[in-house]
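Dissemination and training. As part of the outreach component of the grant, students in the summer workshop were shown how a complex can be specified as a set of sequence lines and then modelled as a single object. The example used during the hands-on session is reproduced here so that future cohorts can follow it. Participants entered these lines:
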Amino acid sequence: MPITEIVFYMFSLVLVAAAVAVITVRNPVNAALFLVLAFFSSAAIWMLLEVEFLAIILILVYVGAVMVLFLFVIMMLDINLAPMQEGFINYLPVGITVAVVMALELMVVVWSKGRFDETAFPVPPPHPDTYSNTKALGELLFTNYLLAFELAGVILLVAIIAAIALTHRQRTGSKRQNPSMQVRVQRDERVRLVKMDPEPRQGSQ
Amino acid sequence: MPETWLDHLIYMVILLLKIIAVVVPLILAVAYYTYMERKVIGYMQVRRGPNRIGPLGLFQPFADVFKLLLKEIVMPENANKFLFVLAPVLSMAPAFAAWVVVPFNDWMVIADIDAGLLYILAMSSLGVYGLIIAGWASNSKYAFLGALRSSAQMVSYEIAMGFALIGVLIMAGSLNLSEIVRAQQGGLLDWFWFPLLPLFVIYVISGVAETNRAPFDVAEGESEIVAGFHVEYAGAAFAVFFLAEYANMILISALTAILFTGGWLSPFEGIPVIGDTILGQGSIFWFLAKTVFFMYLFLWWRATFPRYRYDQIMRLGWKVLVPITMVWVLVAACFSVFGLVVRGS
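and obtained this result:
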């Protein structure tokens, strides 16, 4: 067995185990951390496909930014687990239906002849040593798919602005500072020197 | 690509030796960085610093290490045991892993990969997990506050840092760290610190904020939250956090040297007489000299500046640094497009 296959199965095993753990562990913080592990393993598998750019981006964006904010929120929530498990029986039929549909869809993909198997998607030949995934991706994005790429950028920008506009509220009663005024403040505005004669001490002679 | 098992084995052993050749000097550098910190701050405050153990106190770091290793590790009563132990490891591993793409000179680099800079960004964004998990697993309010502060701070300054790096990318036209250094060839004013001066300053500032060092060390904030995220840690576990923090500082210094001040290139390159001697040649010596200079800046600032208030840190990051970097990325693009700064000239 070539070493890449051993590495692949190793990371796949970790990936599947971590993904199962995400939905089975009780503690939400542990679940989020297992999700991080799952992202990491899938990044390693992408690395085996010689797509180092996407693999590192996966770690950078999902593990480094998204999951940090996730953990941040989860840790601050005071989650009481008991009421969350109350509706388990009620939701069970819906859950089972969704699971069965997804399983069927997966089976169609796995067992269909000629459309999704190795003949349709053969193992890609290894790239030459000079191949740079970063460069290849950049060339495609900025030539053939420039319009789609820029459209995606605009949509993301709109989403960012919309998210800010939707959640931003002017809070009443918050005290705010004006740093430039703080810097420009003069001594005379804060300190008043008072000239007064010394008073005789009380009760002393 | 090696084919037989023996080839694999030899390849792995050589790789392992290379890693050891980087990690062991790095750990020694961390040990002597703590010594340097105490000496430098000592002299700045008209004290002598450590001077009892060995000549000039040179064995002080080892005494510290043995003290920490021999201390008992106290486990808080209701702490999450597994995560509590995992956290220091998680904060140390990325700090060391990032070194794999750092080029020490023209050929001395473990992995000369094309996505090098992205890899560095990814690794430095992972360091925050150690802090968050440590703060949460300790089951202590001080530790948790420290973890929240530092994670919000690190996520914020990562943006300014990322934009500063984009400026470098535009000028260098590559994500490969060795290529970025080669693009700065030509002498002092061809290094990127000059055309990208605002980005250089911002990168260094956000580097200090990323490593949670003074004046941005609210994550520890002794006077407010005791010691922040590692308040419950003692002994060896604490030592590992310490190791990670200093390794990160050295990493940021090395990256500043590579990205903005020409890595292994000599400052005398192109100057008539001295440029023709050995001083004009690029070598690992120059890289280390630059790194040590930036390491010194960390200590200098710690001894100089008072700690920022938390809202001031956020304001500086989001309302001052990020807009400046955005503008200068545009300026850098103009430099590049109109050929005002030519790569590797």
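Residues 74-337 of chain B form one domain. Students were then asked to discuss how this feature might be tested experimentally.
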